Amino acid sequence: MRIRRSTLCTAVISVVSTAAVVLTFALPTAATVRAHDRDGATVRGHEQGGAQNLGDPDYGVCRGTDPRCYHDWGSFPPAAGHRLLVYTRTAGPRHAHLGTPLGPGLNPPLNDDNVAVKAVIELGRENGFAVDYTEDVTRLASAQSLLKYSAVMFLSTTRDALDDGAQTALRQYVRAGGGFVGVHNAFGTEYNWPWYEGLLGNANFYDHGPNQPAEVRTVGRKDVSTQGLPGRWTFTDEWYNLVPAPTRVRVLTEVDENTMAQGARGNLGHPGHGGNHPVSWCQYYDGGRSWVTTLGHDVRTWTDEPLEGDEFFLRHLLGGIKSAAGMSPFCR
Ligand SMILES: [Zn+2]
User: Fold this and answer.
1) From the CA of 262, how far away is ligand 1's center (Å)?
2) Would you say the pTM of this structure is higher than 0.85?
3) pLDDT value of position 243
4) Which of 6, 55, 217, 317 is most buried by a 10 A CB count?
């Protein structure tokens, strides 16, 4: 499913009330330890690793792998088609794969170096969903403007990429059952907004090591985003280290730190995550769906320039988009 691109660019830089019976909400507790559910996928909780005792807050919302946390309010009728909004505003450092900053408004002209956005547009064209893109925060000014999208993707946004109105709109959108897809530096965005950290699965970017090849391990193959992936595949990335590290989520892929020639230690001293270093996961959160991956740094991920494993990454991402958008079952 390698997507085709015209040019090779080098960038510069529910609560479902099942009967009225007393079915209490048995959400995982803080004592949860890494466990494999009946399908072999991983529901992550606290565990031993490089960084520990990071906490397991619930952010005051219903969150985890239990679909009863989803608000199935009929806000996204399939008959309306599927549309993804890609948001790439950078209020801090800007990744090379984003290229030249975009002009204001929705779907402004693209440059040859806007390779990541172009790749997602192509992914949609080939797989049955429309893609709008913007880095204009005023396009996120109201929940109404977001509710026409089956999913919203934060693609390497940085720092305080949202203003107060956009924060409110995103929260209301998710509470209405919206889908969120976070890619790479979405983990370096809105550090000081706890609700958003919860949307990421109780996780934030802390630091990263060298951009280097390593083996990704596919944790389970029941989810649409892991179906068809090899058990292990080589990919190149910065391999984000996280503080906090995700809890109550379904881990979909992990990186094997033993395959990193230059090690997992990050530039700010994070020792890595030892035997369990997640790189993508999913959860229900505050009524919505959230599928996230820390991967996607390398420009070659998004272009025709060869990069081992990029077809698997793109297949994985496509599954994440489709499941968050309600086109496929979510977080299995
Ligand atoms: Zn990066």
Assistant:
1) 17
2) yes
3) 95
4) 317
Ligand 1 centroid distance, CA of 279 (Å):
13
Classify 174 as helix, strand or coil.
Answer: helix
Residue 133 CB neighbour total at 10 angstroms = 24
Ion ligand 1 — residues with CB under 5 Å?
238, 297
- C-alpha distance across the termini of the chain, in Å: 22
Write the CATH number for 295: 3.40.50.880
Dist. CA 238 → ligand 1 center (Å):
6
Q: What are phi and psi of 83, to 5 degrees?
A: -135, 135
Q: 302 C-alpha to center of ligand 1: Å?
A: 13
**For the chain, what is the domain count?**
1
Distance between Cα 167 and ligand 1 center (Å): 23
CA dihedral 172, 140, 11, 100 (to 10 degrees): -160
Residue 3 domain flag: no
Whether residue 311 is contained in a domain is answered as yes
- The SS3 of residue 287 is strand
- Domain ranges, residue 260: 38-324
* 19 contact partners, CB below 8 Å, separation of at least 6: none
Ligand 1 centroid–CA 108 distance in Å is: 24
Q: What distance in angstroms lies between residue 87's CA and the mean position of ligand 1's atoms? A: 16
DSSP three-state, residue 205: strand
pLDDT at 50: 62
> Given this model, what pLDDT does residue 315 score?
98
Query: E strands along the chain, which residues?
Result: 35-36, 42-44, 63-64, 83-87, 130-134, 151-155, 179-183, 205-207, 212-218, 232-237, 241-242, 249-256, 277-285, 288-293
Give me ligand 1 centre to Cα 222, in Å.
Answer: 28
Which residues of the chain are under the pLDDT cut of 50?
1-40, 45-48
Which long-range CB contacts under 8 A does 274-277 form with residues at least 24 apart? 274/48, 274/49, 274/50, 275/49, 276/34, 276/44, 276/47, 276/49, 276/251, 277/49, 277/239
Amino acid at 273: H
Query: How far apart, in whole angstroms, are the C-alpha atoms of residue 133 and residue 292?
Result: 18
